[in-house]
Write a structure and sequence with these properties.
By secondary structure, this protein is mainly α. The chain has 16 helices and no strands. Helix 4 runs parallel beside helix 7, helix 4 packs parallel to helix 12 and helix 8 runs parallel beside helix 10.
Length: about 525
C-alpha cells in the first residue's frame, strides 16, 4: 500500500477552508482594541481548563514574587524601630540593590521563561508525534500478520508498544535536556559575581548619586547595609534565573516553597541579629544574605531532578540567542529602573523623613503590585506554549482572561491598601513626621493598583509572544516622557509631586503595553484575520 507524498508547498499553502472550519485561529475577528477586555468576560472567574491552568501557575507565582518584598517589609519594620535615620539609610540601600539586580536579572528571567516554555513544548510535541506515528503502525502490522511469522509479529508489536510507553514515561518523568536552562544558569552566576564586585567597590559614589552625601547621617548605615547585602547577589541572580526556568516549565510551586523557606529564615534571624546580637542594620543585611543562599540551594537541588543542568555539549548553549534579546530588554529595564531610582533619589534629597516615608510607601506599592506579576507569569508561560503550537485561539483566550483578572485584582488591592494602611502604619514607624507623609502617599499607593496590574500583565503578554523589541522600545519612550515629569513635579510639589510623577509613569506604561495588542501588529497580526 503506497501512501501518497505531500509536497512542502502543500503544507505551506493549504487549500481554502470553509468559514466554519475548525482552525486554531480566533473564532471572532478583531473588532476594536477593547474587544480583548470584553471577550468571554462572563467566564472571568470560571475554573475551566484555561482558568485552572492560569490559577495553578499564577497563585504560587504571585505568592513567591511577593515573599521577598514582604521579607524586605519585615526588615523595614524591624529597622524602623531603631530610628528614622537608619530606616532611611536602609531604604536607599535596598532601592540601589534591587534596581541593580533588576537590571542584571530581569532580561534573563523574562527570556528564560519564554525560551524554556517554547523548547519544552516543542520537545513534548516531538514525543507526542512520535507516539502517534507508532500508533499508526499497529494496523500495518496487523495487515502484514499473514506475511510475517506470528512470533515476529508479536515481537514487533510489543517493541512498538514498549517504545511508546518509554516515550510517554520520558515525557512525564524524565530529565529534560533544555539548552536555554543551562545557558540561563551560567549567565546568572556570572552576572551575580559582577554585581557583587560592582556594589562593593562603588557603594559610596552610588549612594552619593542617590542623595546620601559624605556629610549625611545616613551614609554609614547605608554603606554598611549595601556592601553586606551585595555578598548575596550571586545567590539572588542564580535563584531568579532558576525561577525563570521553573516558570517556563509551568512549575511555580517549587519556587514558592523555596522562597517561603528562605524568607521565613530571614524573618527568624532578623530580631536575633538586630537586637539580641546588637548588630543593627548589619544584622538585617546578613540575615537576608543567608536566606538568599538557602533559596538558591533548594531551587538547584529541585532543578537537578528535572533538567540536565549540564548540556551534552558546549555548542548546545544559546548565548547568542540570549544576548540578542537580552540587550533589547536590558535597554527596557534600564529605562524602567531609572524612573523608580530617580524617584527614590528625589525623596532622599528632601531629607531622611521624606525618604523614610517614601521607602515605606514604595515597598507596599511594589509588594502589592507584584501580585499582578503572578498573572503576568501565567500569561507568559501559557502564551509561549500556545504560540509554539500555533494555537492562536488559546492565545487570544489567555490574553483576555489574564487582563480581565488583572483589573479585578487591581480593584481589590485598591480597597485593601486603603483600609489596611489607615490602621497599619504603626507597624513601620512611630515617628509622627514620617507618619504624616505616609498618609499623604496612601491615596497614590492605593489608587494606582489597577493601573499597575494592567502594566505588569501587559509585560507578560508581550514577553509570551516573544515581542521583546516592542517591549524595549516602548519602555524607552515611556521613560523619556516620565523622567522630565519626575524632575518638574518633584521640585514644584515635593513628596506629592514624586507620587504624581510615578502615577503618570505607570499610566503611560500600561497604555504602551496595550498599544501593540490593540493595533494587532507584530505577533498579533493573526487578529486581523
Amino acid at each position: 500500500m503506497e501512501i501518497p507524498e505531500m509536497s512542502e508547498d502543500a503544507n505551506l499553502n493549504p487549500p481554502p477552508m470553509p468559514e466554519d472550519a475548525n482552525l486554531n485561529t480566533p473564532a471572532m475577528k478583531w473588532k476594536t482594541p477593547f474587544h480583548v477586555f470584553l471577550k468571554d468576560v462572563r467566564l472571568v472567574f470560571k475554573l475551566d481548563e484555561l482558568g485552572s491552568e492560569i490559577a495553578s501557575i499564577a497563585l504560587p507565582a504571585a505568592l513567591a514574587l511577593t515573599a521577598d518584598p514582604i521579607a524586605s517589609l519585615v526588615d523595614t519594620a524591624f529597622i524602623g524601630h531603631i530610628g528614622p535615620v537608619e530606616l532611611a539609610a536602609v531604604g536607599v540601600s535596598i532601592a540601589v540593590f534591587n534596581q541593580v539586580s533588576r537590571i542584571a536579572i530581569f532580561p534573563l528571567v523574562s527570556i528564560t521563561t519564554s525560551f524554556v516554555a517554547e523548547e519544552d513544548t516543542i520537545r513534548t510535541m516531538s514525543i507526542e508525534e512520535e507516539s502517534e506515528n507508532l500508533e499508526k503502525a499497529f494496523p500495518v502490522k496487523s495487515e502484514m500478520k499473514e506475511l510475517i511469522p506470528s512470533i515476529d509479529t508479536e515481537k514487533a508489536i510489543s517493541s512498538v508498544s514498549e517504545t511508546k510507553k518509554t516515550n510517554m514515561s520520558s515525557l512525564k518523568a524524565g530529565k529534560r535536556n533544555i539548552p536555554s536552562a543551562s545557558s540561563a544558569l551560567i549567565i546568572g552566576g556570572v552576572l551575580g559575581l559582577l554585581q557583587t564586585i560592582l556594589l562593593i567597590f562603588s557603594a559610596k559614589p552610588v549612594l552619593g548619586f542617590m542623595g546620601v552625601k559624605s556629610d549625611s547621617p545616613m551614609l554609614k548605615s547605608a554603606r554598611q547595609y549595601l556592601v553586606l547585602r551585595s555578598l548575596g547577589a550571586p545567590a539572588v541572580l542564580l535563584s531568579l534565573a532558576m525561577q525563570g526556568i521553573f516558570r517556563g516549565l509551568k512549575d511555580t510551586k517549587t519556587p514558592l516553597y523555596a522562597t517561603v523557606a528562605g524568607d521565613a529564615t530571614n524573618i527568624i534571624l532578623d530580631p536575633i541579629f538586630i537586637y539580641v546580637l546588637h548588630m543593627g542594620v548589619s544584622g538585617a543585611a546578613i540575615a537576608h544574605v543567608i536566606s538568599q543562599y538557602l533559596i538558591s540551594l533548594i531551587l538547584l537541588w529541585r532543578l537537578m531532578k528535572k533538567v540536565d543542568v549540564l548540556p551534552p555539549s558546549f555548542k548546545e548553549l544559546q548565548f547568542s540567542r540570549f544576548l540578542k534579546n537580552g540587550f533589547m530588554l536590558l535597554g527596557r529595564v534600564i529605562a524602567a529602573t531609572i524612573c523608580v531610582t530617580l524617584a527614590a533619589s528625589m525623596a532622599a534629597h528632601h531629607g531622611p523623613i521624606s525618604m523614610a516615608a517614601f521607602q515605606i510607601c514604595l515597598q507596599i506599592w511594589m509588594t502589592t503590585s507584584l501580585l499582578a506579576d503572578g498573572l503576568a507569569v501565567a500569561g507568559q508561560a501559557i502564551l509561549a506554549s500556545a504560540f509554539a503550537r500555533k494555537d492562536y485561539e488559546k492565545a487570544m483566550a489567555t490574553v483576555s482572561r489574564v487582563l480581565q483578572l488583572s483589573v479585578v485584582l487591581g480593584l481589590f488591592l485598591t480597597v485593601g491598601i486603603w483600609i489596611g494602611l489607615q490602621f497599619g502604619w504603626r507597624v513601620f514607624t512611630k515617628d509622627l513626621n514620617v507618619v504624616k507623609l505616609i498618609h499623604i502617599g496612601i491615596p497614590f499607593v492605593a489608587a494606582t493598583q489597577p493601573i499597575n496590574s494592567l502594566a505588569f500583565v501587559f509585560d507578560g503578554i508581550n514577553f509570551g509572544a516573544s515581542d521583546f523589541a516592542y517591549a524595549a522600545y516602548s519602555m524607552i519612550i515611556v521613560a523619556i516622557i516620565s523622567i522630565p515629569c519626575l524632575f518638574l513635579l518633584s521640585s514644584s510639589h515635593g513628596f506629592v509631586g514624586i507620587w504624581i510623577a510615578l502615577t503618570i509613569y505607570m499610566s503611560i506604561r500600561a497604555l504602551a503595553g496595550f498599544g501593540r495588542l490593540g493595533a494587532a501588529r507584530g505577533p498579533w497580526n493573526f487578529l486581523r484575520g
